[in-house]
Amino acid sequence: MDKVRHARDGGFTMMELTVVLFVMALVTSASLIGYRSYIHGANISALSQVIRNVRTASHQYIQINSSYSGLSCPALSASGIWPPSGCNGPSFSLSIPQTSVSVAAGATPYQFSIVILSSYFTDTDFEAICNQFQAQATQCSPSSGTLTLVF
């Protein structure tokens, strides 16, 4: 007599494959959310560092020129304070998406402002940056897509 064979011929059922694909999709989506959050945090840190670098360069500019009159990225570059490749027209060259940073003389000869235009950062991000620089900045004004810091 032939024995009845109860074992499968091999392979996975469609249900097993579906469950595995579903679990893989969940793990992938969770890791992508974490990765996007990590990248966003890194871009906020990068923007803060750019502000610090521009502030330091601006302080060097006033030591050379006795006022902030004419202060801009090209002027910092012409003074040898900022690298020539670091300017993109009147703005600073950045690796942060959808963001431009510029610097200009302030209302008085001893003030300057850093203006950030961005569709990438939120108002909450700008408020966090204001909190970082509240001790140094005399004014920090976040509004929709724009942050102005006056030093």
TrEMBL record:
Keyword check for Transmembrane helix: yes
Protein name per Swiss-Prot or TrEMBL: Prepilin-type N-terminal cleavage/methylation domain-containing protein
Ranges annotated as spanning the membrane: 12-35
Record-linked InterPro entries: N_methyl_site (IPR012902), Pilin-like (IPR045584)
Keyword Transmembrane: yes
Domain of life: Bacteria
Keywords: Membrane, Transmembrane, Transmembrane helix
